[in-house]
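Hey,

The postdoc asked me to send both predictions to you directly instead of through the lab channel. I've kept everything plain text so nothing gets mangled by the mail client. Protein one:
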Amino acid sequence: MRVLIADDHPLFRDGLRSLLEACGIDVIGEARNGREAVAQAKRLEPDVVLMDLNMPELDGLEATRLISAQQPEVKVVVLTASEEDANLFEAIKSGAQGYMFKNLDSNESFGLLEGVARGEPALTPNLARKLLGAFARPPQPSPRAATDETQSLTEREREVLNLLVQGITSNRELAERLVVSENTVKYHLRNILDKLHVQNRAQVVAYAVRHGMVEGTS
């Protein structure tokens, strides 16, 4: 995994780089602010950007939006000290693949990062519950739009969607539940992302809950 670290605190960057490299993760660059993060992501093409939120010149949320729009193949994971729910929701809506606190246990952090490499969202169970709860609350948009999106999915894709909303996000668990190969799971997930016009699994779950596309979420 090739990682770019974006944080305005040199000591934190140095410590994080040492931890990542000790675990065999290749840190290919560092950025001191959001503007540098966008430029280096374009130049270095990392697999993952670990993005702080509060940075000078361009904050982490705006940098996440730009990277997600310009390089959808690059996975942005917010790594922050901010515990404000609003930042979590905005980060996911901006295209982040995950949201982790800086005080998270290192083993748990690396486990989430390994999941990101497989296309899984980097969210602790508590943050996943907050995300689902938040996107379940807003008023329902046009029923016709939600119905059209649901009808565009195949029966198997709707099964995958239901499992994602239940919190089953790893390829292995999805494959076991559906009794198919992990490659088949990846195929269905790509189709769901394309049909719902979203960028990652966290956004799929948020979209499905917000639009009442699965049982028990409307």
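Protein two:
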Amino acid sequence: MNPQSLLRRSEFEWWIEPTGQMRVPGIIYASEQLIAGMDEKVREQLANVATLPGIQRAAYAMPDAHWGYGFPIGGVAAFDPDEGGVISAGGVGFDISCGVRTLHTALRPDALEPHKAELAEALFRSVPAGVGSSGAIILDEREMDEMLCGGAQWAVSRGYGYPQDLERIEESGRASGAKPECVSQQAKKRQARQMGTLGSGNHYLEVQRVDTIFDSAAATEFGLHQDDIVVSIHCGSRGLGHQIGTDYLKTMVIQGYRPIPDRELACAPIHSELGQHYLGAMRAATNCALANRQIITHLVRGAFAEVIPAARLTLLYDVSHNTCKIERHSGDAAPRELFVHRKGATRSFGPGHPELPLALQGVGQPVLIGGTMGTESYILAGTKESEQLAFSSACHGAGRAMSRTQATKQWRGRALIDQLREQGILIRTRSYRGVAEEAPGAYKDVSAVAEAAEQAHLARRVARLVPLICVKG
């Protein structure tokens, strides 16, 4: 994207002034270098989002933004239902409630290193990964509906984890308002054997070391110290979420709001029957993702117990980055409830926010930023400024710099695995092609993205994590 096509408001804030049917400006938070690396399609899609009815303040893009389906990935937009606001399936994405969960292990590098290869094999054996992967859990119709209503709370009630886990999950591990009856039988069928599985693409299970502490006070509050070993899980609602996205996008194209500048922006008024049905299905998929990450946590604990019994895996936090949530914000007037779409963007509530666990209110919400299997990841903390800047939102990862097809032309999976092993990173995968598609070089510089988020005051850096073991689909 040409930076000169934007109005620069500050070093890390760039505006698309309203023109044509735009109701609000588009705002991108990024460095000039990150802007220059963005596809022009990001600008076009952000301007299109700004035309939707009921949108408040602006259509936002985070530092890791790249073009997606309808909304740019890294896009944020909030809608007021009383001003004709809409819900857009494309504004949530196909992998509904995809997110990251990070766990403490109570281990240090000297305790891990002698068992590293054995642990990699145990994790790979314990957590199914890959396209169409299935697990040992099979849900009948009754259990499926109970899972879709209960989320991680359902998983804990079935013995997958502990009640205290729920204290460190958004919404205590359960999205209210889920409507399993609004989820198609095809979606439920696809999910019946996929609980406790990673899936493919950019999803991963990673053992990491805390490499750098940026904010010692916040790190202490998060329970992080130099050289701590942690585990991060990145996955979502699997086949169920994808099918819900497919089902409702098709319906919204036919029955939804008109006119729209791009059919991929298909949407429905929040107060409409279609809008309410999608919200109910989306919340059911959110619960599916929360339950899925909870089950994977249980499987990971089992693998560690088998190899390193001294490990104690406790949750730091679990946050989703493909969602639409009702949150109280000041839009263009007094504070009120808005429907905040975050597609490839992470909620970043600042210190004192009432929706945070008491233990985190003094420092703000952990913002978990995933890297790639060969590069660092970051833990940030939400800021109070982010509320006014972007409805308490921050980036979610590095963001792709090239397509998967382009990546496979440039890299070979086996060679990448060998290169990463030489760097001390063990990769376990069922697909060499999948590794090539997710090559570190196919992504933006996650350190530049995290720094831009901090410089823009969306969130502040707390710790940098480097990979040691990565299980990929």
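Summary for protein two, as requested: The CA atoms of residues 266 and 360 lie 37 Å apart.

Thanks,
C.
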